[in-house]
Amino acid sequence: MRDTLRWAYALNQWNIRMDVFVRHEDQRRALKTLSALGFGHIELAAGTGRWDNLGRPEVIEINHGSPEGFLAFLRSCSVNGVSSMFWDPGQPVEEEGWAFRSTRNRDDHAAIVESAKPFVDFLAAIGAEQLVARPVGSAWMQPPLGRDDIAAIGEVWNSVGKVAAAAGVGLALHYDCLSAVHTADELRRLLDATDPELVGLALDTAELTIGGIDPVAFYEERHERVTHVHLKDTRYADTGEEYRMPGAETTMLRGGAGRRIERWFFELGTEGGLVDVKAFVAALRRHGYPGWVVVESDHGGNPAELAMLNSWYLQQELSVART
To answer: Which region is the signal sequence (predicted)?
Structure first.
């Protein structure tokens, strides 16, 4: 896409189950679809194991020989490169012995920083700009934030930010509607606990809306901290603190927590959408936002269909020209 903004697309919506997005021909089909729709860059998502072969730097290199080999694979599908990669240090992975770590626990900080290094090095090698990270785990899995918790969380991300900056990669913390850092005030406190030279905010329009935060208003308030954007819509907000329910990843995001919500995340321009996409994008342009805008559907349905709908919306409603 050609615009004053830079547009990319998240691949996560294709990887809905460990056995459906493994073969290179399936990945080529997705990449060629995105290229045909005008998206020249993609965002990757961290994972684990051989079945998630776009989720770990070492597995990507096994499959493609080197970072340069991976870029050649993308370019053979007419995709120019990678904008960013999403990573959750609290997600146990096979490659690290299924260790469970928490950014709230200072005893885990050194291991989290070490865990970030392969991702930082890989992103630097392929010319990607942002490591996008989940700052803290889900609220239902831990007690409410204590007085010192946000300070501890900020400390580890400042340390990761130093590692990333040394490699020429940015770090952006991604607000998650299930996260223990949930309210606008908690998010402000987290930003205040981190060094703006090292740590930015990845603003996700749908996640903020579900969590009860107006993404346009929050961007206007803290636009100088926003270094990455995930752009998607939602028709629903969590009005009953469903994010605190046990197993919220399943009970809420996949089951609607009794409200029979089929899915929470929707394509741009969805009927009944709560995100004012046009106002948000106008605010990005007005403030000269320099980062990537990653369009995302996040397991919302048929991935190719949703990518087509998103591409149509960008061209027809936001006046973004195809490259």
So the answer is: none
